[in-house]
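Morning F.,

Quick status update on the modeling queue. The single chain you submitted on Monday has been processed. Sequence for confirmation:
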Amino acid sequence: MATDAPVPIPTLPMSYLPPDFARMLELSTYFVIGTLGALIYDVLINLEGDFRIFQRVRFSLPFTAYTISRTATLLYVVLYAIYSTAPFGDCEALQEALSWVYLVAVSGTSLLFFLRVRAVYNKNMYITGLFFFLWLCVAAGCVTISQGVLGINIGPTKYCMNSPNIAAYVTAAVIIPLINDTLVFMFISGKLVSNCHLDFSLKKGVRQGLFGDYMPAFSKGMLQDGQVYYLSTLVLQIVTIIMLLGDTSIAYKTMFAIPNLAVMNIMACRVYRDTFRKISGSREQSTVMNTSSGRSEAIPLSFRRGHPQPQDITLDINKIEVTRTVEQASDYSHRDDNKMHYKAEGNMV
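Structure tokens below.
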């Protein structure tokens, strides 16, 4: 005698799905809820710091990008939690809205690093043009979600899920930001390392690039902030790409996309806040030291070999001036130094 198939229960949307797929979809939902909790916690514990930054910089471009990125990311995860758990009804419209909020969130996060590169390279026309183009590519890649991901109802219920037919080109929304992050990391790290001049050796070069050895505190901090961001987001981005391109269930394809977005935002905003604290702290310390003489605030971005003191480097809360010193091999005296200065002014906070 044939066994009757289970009868779907209207109040239980998962009963309309195959059991294995329903379990995977529930697991994906747990990921979303867990991500939402972590993101809300991160926002709350940093509210006081965000308010202090606002008091200092008001509506500067970097802080505006920071606020947009933060708000859009939180909004996206909240909406996706609603999409995954609530009987919304019009699933297609909600998924369409989610795709555009995702565009704003990722573009805002990438804009923070575009401004960082522009500041470090003193608004160099070619570097700025390259990374502005990459930022536009990031935004264009995110547009693919609005075209390649469709929201559907689970059976006759008002609960939502993504259509199993996700277009392969949607991976551009993850691959292009990964490429952009990689280039940002390489260019900023290379610039910071090049500003610290020592007798070249492979051992010193490796230690300087990996650990920030022989570098002033501010440059070392910027280097390490970039390393923490890149390494913490790299694994999730690669896993998300593998899931999207692999022959996996739709539940698995999108499972890591939400945590990936949240981690990118949390770490990028942490880098922004750390940079602000370093600049503000150095400015306040230098202001106390130089009040009587009226000198400009100074923070060392590079040191000369044999002369550990900072070299003519001024710092404004919104500007950084980088001094590079090149010494002739035949004479290391201060008087005979051959100096090359290039000033990098750009808003970082």
